[in-house]
User: Which sequence fits this backbone?
């Protein structure tokens, strides 16, 4: 907490500026990845390409057998400084994967930066089949394509829906009613 | 848009969310549903696909979205060969109302009103996980008064009772035991009446809020709780007599919808379904939150992973919850029911008349809300259906920048194709019922 408080006094316009986080502490790593802490929760920041290998290694060697959650965040309208470890470039999207170990009763969170102009992320389906619906939801809500996913279709929205609702440039309300078969949609 | 759907209707195009036709699916679809979960190689799946019947031997049956056993608007596309279910695909989203998007526009004080409507059978757990995440972001999670935490536990365990009683009722109804439906509903109504006495509402209470709970327990709450406990204990034994030993009921449930521990872990399944496989994983015991490390209770586990185990686990979890409630009655300390931090909790009504600052704080909290330091956090609690998680990102404003609820039903529903495969269609109803999905939480 202390280094977060220390950096919150920095100019908020320096969004991509990581010197604040770097100045306070040495870059810390765990499982070979840069790690940050939120209270007692450990957050890894792996690169996008190494995600599947890392998750597989965590499953096989470190007993993180359960993938609890896959979700994403769109940082388009985020005004506060983003506290990422040095060497991790902030991008518009972030895929957040929650892992759980039944043996050590520990949680681990992976935050993967996904750029807006190449909104793809490797699918974790081969490692954890339970991510199938969760990744479909992220695709449905954010338009992030999971390469290698067996059935990447919309899951909650109608399949002919325009746009991705949880993106920050998708407005709340004032959305024309889109139903299948409506001839003169407003 | 419109031209596409008109064309599509003309071609009777079912759309991409539906079950893929068999000739286009083959080994790929099998790999998705079975192979990946069982960790089979692609060659094994291909061999398995060769034994599958061809498309003209099977038929697609839509079960739902308007089917009484689907607990809302769940639609299952089943591919049948005779009476045997070959493939299944849950089609969801009929109840989607964009609650995560809405949550980004509501302040942290309005948030519980929104999330409580997700899992409408256990609303207090949604409020709890939202409040825990907010408090962790605020950094006040250590400072919540013990009485508030114990009240939260009391309410959650009462809510777990009502939720499981609802399951027992609908499980009976789905299998044709209509008297069980009436019994379960009757007892659930008693717990809901008690929750109404405490919180003011039967459901969607908005009672657990960041900083504590909305109000202290009302006069006579202890008698009300004891009345419900005394009333439920013999009635649960009645259920045992009515269902647990009954040959027809057992025949309908035993060996149906079997899932092993490895498969459940691979699919991310949590809650009673995971425990039915014999794995004693209960967040209340394994990663304790609130004061669950100070009460005695057992994590109920099954051994076969079938629908009967899931029924028995839930029935016995009601008993465990009753035991926890009795311990809470003894342990509940006196004190504040919410944190005395004027930036988070509104001042008492009486103070507003005499203090200018109280009036200002009251006004500010209810108009612009309180600001939460930037950061991101994941909190999880054991809801009656499994791990209910909340991932929250704050940008330092008065509303969450991102609010994600990890609904246990959402993940559990995707285990359905695996549980249904190879069973008969009549068992599908029993399996759906044993998963106990709440569609409000699946679709959010």
Assistant:
């Amino acid at each position: 907490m202390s280094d977060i408080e220390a950096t919150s006094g920095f100019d908020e316009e320096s969004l991509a500026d990581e010197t604040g986080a770097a100045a306070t502490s040495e870059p810390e790593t765990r499982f070979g990845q840069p790690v940050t802490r939120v209270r007692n929760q450990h957050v890894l920041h792996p690169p996008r390409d190494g995600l599947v290998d890392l998750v597989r290694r965590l499953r096989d060697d470190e007993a993180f057998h359960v993938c609890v959650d896959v979700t994403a965040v769109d940082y388009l309208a985020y005004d506060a400084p983003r506290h990422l470890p040095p060497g991790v470039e902030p991008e518009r999207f972030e895929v957040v994967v929650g892992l759980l170990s039944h043996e050590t009763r520990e949680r681990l969170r992976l935050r993967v930066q996904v750029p807006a102009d190449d909104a793809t992320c490797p699918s974790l389906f081969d490692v954890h089949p339970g991510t199938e619906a969760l990744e479909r939801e992220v695709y449905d809500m954010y338009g992030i394509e999971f390469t290698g996913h067996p059935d990447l279709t919309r899951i909650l929205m109608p399949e002919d829906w325009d746009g991705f609702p949880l993106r920050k440039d998708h407005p709340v309300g004032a959305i024309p009613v889109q139903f299948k078969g409506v001839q003169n949609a407003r | 848009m419109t031209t596409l759907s008109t064309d599509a209707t003309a071609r009777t195009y079912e759309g991409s969310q539906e079950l893929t036709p068999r000739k286009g699916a083959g080994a790929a679809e099998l790999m998705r549903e079975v192979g990946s979960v069982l960790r089979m190689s692609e060659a094994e799946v291909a061999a398995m696909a060769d034994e599958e019947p061809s498309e003209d031997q099977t038929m697609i049956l839509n079960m739902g979205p308007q089917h009484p056993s689907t607990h809302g608007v769940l639609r299952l596309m089943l591919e049948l060969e005779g009476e045997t279910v070959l493939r299944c695909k849950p089609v969801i989203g009929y109840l989607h109302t964009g609650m995560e998007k809405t949550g980004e526009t509501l302040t942290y004080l309005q948030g519980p009103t929104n999330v409580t409507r997700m899992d409408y059978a256990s609303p207090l757990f949604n409020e709890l996980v939202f409040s825990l995440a907010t408090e962790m972001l605020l950094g006040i999670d250590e400072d919540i008064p013990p009485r508030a935490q114990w009240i939260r536990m009391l309410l959650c365990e009462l809510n777990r009772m009502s939720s499981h009683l609802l399951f027992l009722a609908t499980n009976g109804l789905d299998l044709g035991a209509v008297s069980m439906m009436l019994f379960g509903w009757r007892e659930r109504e008693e717990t809901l009446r008690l929750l109404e006495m405490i919180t003011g509402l039967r459901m969607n209470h908005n009672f657990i809020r960041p900083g504590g709970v909305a109000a202290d327990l009302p006069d006579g709450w202890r008698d009300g709780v004891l009345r419900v406990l005394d009333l439920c204990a013999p009635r649960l034994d009645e259920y045992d007599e009515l269902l647990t030993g009954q040959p027809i009921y057992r025949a309908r449930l035993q060996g149906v919808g079997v899932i092993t521990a490895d498969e459940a872990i691979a699919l991310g399944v949590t809650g009673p379904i995971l425990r039915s496989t014999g794995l004693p994983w209960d967040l209340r015991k394994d990663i304790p939150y609130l004061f669950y490390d100070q009460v005695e209770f057992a994590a109920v586990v099954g051994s076969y992973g079938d629908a009967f185990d899931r029924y028995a686990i839930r029935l016995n979890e009601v008993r465990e919850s009753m035991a926890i409630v009795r311990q809470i009655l003894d342990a509940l300390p006196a004190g504040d029911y919410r944190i005395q931090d004027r930036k988070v909790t509104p001042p008492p009504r009486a103070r507003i008349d005499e203090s200018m600052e109280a009036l200002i704080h009251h006004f500010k909290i209810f108009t612009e809300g309180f600001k939460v330091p930037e950061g991101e956090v994941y909190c999880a609690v054991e809801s009656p259906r499994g791990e209910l998680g909340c991932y929250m990102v704050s940008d330092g404003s008065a509303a969450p920048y991102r609010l994600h609820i990890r609904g246990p039903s959402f993940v559990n529903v995707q285990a359905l194709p695996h549980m249904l495969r190879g069973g008969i269609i009549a068992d599908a109803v029993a399996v759906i019922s044993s998963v106990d999905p709440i569609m409000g939480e699946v679709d959010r």
Observations:
- Chain B has two domains: 2-91, 144-368.
- Confidence is low (pLDDT under 50) at residues 1-14 of chain B.
- The first helix of chain B runs from residue 2 to 10.
